[in-house]
Amino acid sequence: MRPTATLPPIAALVLLAALPAHAAPDQFGSWILNCSTDPMTDQSTCRMTHAQPVEPATEHMPALALEIAPRRGRLVPVVTARDLNLEGALRGLLALTGTAQLRFPPNPLFEMPCGLEGRSVVCAPRPEDAARAAEELPKADQVLVRVLGFGSATAESAPHELPLSQTPEALAAFRAEVPPEQADTPPPAFNLREMIQRLQHYFFSPQ
After folding, report:
1. Looking at the domain assignment, is residue 170 inside a domain?
2. Range of the domain at 71
């Protein structure tokens, strides 16, 4: 039997240092708080994500998730598709055509236009709806979500129902952990048009 390969101690330490530093996630009812630090830039990022996806990932598209995010000085609900790559370009089209409808029953729905932030699609409340979204979020025990756009649902599709629990505790924990720079202006969008052109070239150009 071949001996198990081992790394020299110094090499193992170098390898570990190159990995992102992830703190163990904390769960508050239906919410999961996960923070990490980029070893290259030392920038920290925290995400508060619902444990159940709005739409699960498929072979060619990343999941759509419900998150809590800082917006205009408030913590509000957003719908995200994180860290898109070439295979996830269909989700990226939500940034051009998509809108998320969100409702905390029995309150009326509000719409959240989708846009690109870095390599992620983020559907966030409009400025005029941000205060209402932040006020209704901690009081709700259920949320209805429907994402309209290319590669997602239609206006006739049934909304996704997600249970909510311990949201006030989740908000307090997130507010205590989120780094100040994360509440600043969102990162600029990457070039979606170029990514789609590359996708078209990959599938339709002669081999």
Report:
1. yes
2. 21-177+187-204
